Amino acid sequence: MPPDLADRFDPALAARMQGADPASAGGLPAFLGIEVTECSPGVLAARVDVVPALLTPFGAAHGGVLAVLVDHVLGAVCYPVIPRGAWAATTEFKVNYLAPVREGILEARAEIIALGNRIAVVCIEARSNGDRVGLAQGTVTIRAPIPPPA
Amino acid sequence: MPPDLADRFDPALAARMQGADPASAGGLPAFLGIEVTECSPGVLAARVDVVPALLTPFGAAHGGVLAVLVDHVLGAVCYPVIPRGAWAATTEFKVNYLAPVREGILEARAEIIALGNRIAVVCIEARSNGDRVGLAQGTVTIRAPIPPPA
Amino acid sequence: MPPDLADRFDPALAARMQGADPASAGGLPAFLGIEVTECSPGVLAARVDVVPALLTPFGAAHGGVLAVLVDHVLGAVCYPVIPRGAWAATTEFKVNYLAPVREGILEARAEIIALGNRIAVVCIEARSNGDRVGLAQGTVTIRAPIPPPA
Amino acid sequence: MPPDLADRFDPALAARMQGADPASAGGLPAFLGIEVTECSPGVLAARVDVVPALLTPFGAAHGGVLAVLVDHVLGAVCYPVIPRGAWAATTEFKVNYLAPVREGILEARAEIIALGNRIAVVCIEARSNGDRVGLAQGTVTIRAPIPPPA
Questions:
Q1: Residue A144: pLDDT band with limits 50, 70, 90
Q2: Is D11 exposed, middle or buried (0-12, 13-18, 19+ CB in 10 A)?
Q3: pLDDT of residue B140
Q4: Which among B91, B94, B119 has CB closest to D94?
Q5: Cβ neighbours of residue A82 under 8 Å, at least 6 residues apart?
Q6: Which end of chain D is more exposed for a tag (fewer CB within 10 A), N or C?
Q7: Residue A109 above 80 pLDDT?
Q8: In the sheet where B105-115 sits, what is the strand order?
Q9: Chain C interface test: which of A74, A90, A91, A92 (most C C-beta within 10 Å)
Q10: For all residues of chain A together, what is the average pLDDT?
């Protein structure tokens, strides 16, 4: 963890993120029921319950489930340590699928490895039922907020 | 395109994939309404209508939308050129986000760059409203099917 | 190719890069004998002669040969289209090895896919003896020059 | 670390790798002087002395130096835990550059995250003078040896 993450940490925001109702987010995170389970300086964990509707005809979770979770925690881990109102936009990420997930909880844990004024690099490990099932690494660009279309 | 993709191509499967009702797939692809718009030897294109429910509070499509689409076409482009019943499992992919998508159609076009007995490498370009918005590259492992849990 | 690359293109710099003696660069590029064979707006190709000294005990080129070439063209393709004196620093790249290279010429061709004020995204294809042997994708940060240590 | 790496570990090979003279390897590893500093089950560290010849005109180590080191440890960490004579071929890797390296020792530490019969996934962290300067993740295919050309 870069040394000054604790100084930049916004515990109130972290508490809101951790307590949020997954359904309230809307869109993809609500569809998957992404729930933040840990949010500390430079670290964020979130999980999805791999219900049968998320499996492919081959009986494993669609790769997109892990991909969404990776993209989600990649940005989310940044918000408590960047200025209020700034936007953590995914520049890119890479994910390895280590084992199929067939049921139970899929949890991803993101850790900020480097944080500059404009760029953060994050490492993400995903586990399910005690096994590592995914490993990812991504780059986030920190931007001033872009207002939504009127 | 590797030279022998046309010989391995299963046009009947391709036609079924292209004509499939997005809602019939269930899970993430149905939630996003992923529709296959082109399926030829070594190439597959699919698209998503970026409805407001898929936007984040910042007004851009959640990065997970492109991530799911990338993962989806990465595997789907392989099925018409691998043996019936084989499984195209994502080993890994990497995606760059080139521009935010705020509305309209998001389309990803996958092209098989290399295909061996066990591994395929695929390049994917995503466009929206005429602009390139994503670029991805991934590795797929071709496996005999794993039966779903009883 | 992004539409305005031709307007930003510095043909004098491109000509110098294309005509440069590989030995004059020093360091890794000189050791490998990297020679720029094409330099046009948004595109740069360079090649290495895969001499026996670059093979591993298994008789294939060390993966580092392609990795250096990828990193090299990733930055080099940017210089003729960024301000004089700016620095094209590799943020990250990803490379797939498609086939071993045992002899002959290894050539990589880089194409700028997106170019903003601060970030460029580049796609790179490597070929040897007519076959695709590598595919890469990378992100470059454009920075004001950092002076070398005194 | 996957649980059975210790059982597969070949300590004699590891000892040879750790004690090898960098110059004896030839090619790129000898040019860079890559020295293995640690080799235990599932972990391998190696380092390069960043001499002035490895710097670019901007005064930072050429990105290729880290790229070669990453590719090198990615394969090397596998050899002591795969069958004698098998070949650990890089399928792909992705590397993030976190900070420029201007002098001193560059060290990369590879750790096997997953190891199956055919594929290994490896995470690599690079440090210099106490700082993290690179993060990488790669996929290795384990193959029976391919004899060098006659």
A1: confident
A2: exposed
A3: 98
A4: B94
A5: A8, A88, A120, A142
A6: C
A7: yes
A8: A35-40, A43-49, A105-115, A119-128, A131-143, A87-97, B87-97, B131-143, B119-128, B105-115, B43-49, B35-40
A9: A92
A10: 93
d(CA B143, CA B88): 6
What pLDDT is recorded for position D144? 78
pLDDT at C149 over 80: no
* pLDDT bracket for residue D145 (50, 70, 90): low
Question: pLDDT > 70: what percent of chain D?
Answer: 94
| More confident call, C139 vs C85 | C139
Residue of A91, A94, A141 lying closest to C94 (CB–CB): A94
DSSP-assigned letter for residue A93? E
Whether the predicted pLDDT of C44 surpasses 90 = yes
D52: CB partners within 8 A, 6+ apart = none
B90 contacts A63? CB cut-off 8 A? yes
How many other CB atoms are found less than 10 A from the CB of residue B99? 16
Q: What is the pLDDT of residues A26-46, one digit of tens each?
A: 899 999 999 999 999 999 999
* Nearest beta carbon to residue D135 from set A96, A98, A123: A123
- A42-61 core/surface letters (b: 16 or more CB in 10 A; e: else): bbbbbbbebeeebbbebbbb
| Dihedral angle sign, alpha carbons of residues A75, A79, A80, A83 | positive
Cβ(C61)–Cβ(C101) below 8 Å: yes
The 10s digit of each residue's pLDDT in D75-86 is: 999 999 999 889
A85 Ramachandran zone, left/alpha/beta (phi>0; psi -120 to 50): left
Find out whether B70 and B48 touch, Cβ atoms under 8 Å: no
**Which chain A residue lies closest to B140 (C-alpha atoms)?**
A97
User: What span, in angstroms and rounded, lies between the C-alpha atoms of C24 and D35?
Assistant: 27
**Half-sphere exposure (CA, 13 Å, Cβ side) for C79?**
18
Question: In D5-145, where does DSSP find H-type helix?
Answer: 5-8, 11-19, 27-32, 63-76
Residue D136's SS3 state is strand
CA-to-CA separations, C92 to B8, C49, C117, C137, D136, in angstroms, rounded: 36, 25, 17, 9, 9
Mean pLDDT value of segment B75-102 = 96
Give, in order, the Cα–Cα distances in Å from C56 to each of A128, B108, C72, D89. Answer: 38, 38, 21, 11
What value, to the nearest 5°, has the Cα angle with vertex B57 and ends B54 and B59?
65
Residues of chain C contacting residue A139, judged by C-beta atoms under 8 Å apart: 91-92, 139
As its CATH architecture, domain B5-143 has Roll (3.10)
Q: Give the domain ranges of chain B.
A: 5-143
Q: What is the pLDDT of residues B104-114, one digit of tens each?
A: 999 999 999 99
Strand order in the sheet with D35-40: C35-40, C43-49, C105-115, C119-128, C131-143, C87-97, D87-97, D131-143, D119-128, D105-115, D43-49, D35-40
Residue A150: pLDDT band by 50, 70, 90 thresholds?
low
Single-letter amino acid, residue B52: P
Residues in CB range of B38: below 8 A, 6 or more apart: B18, B44, B45, B109
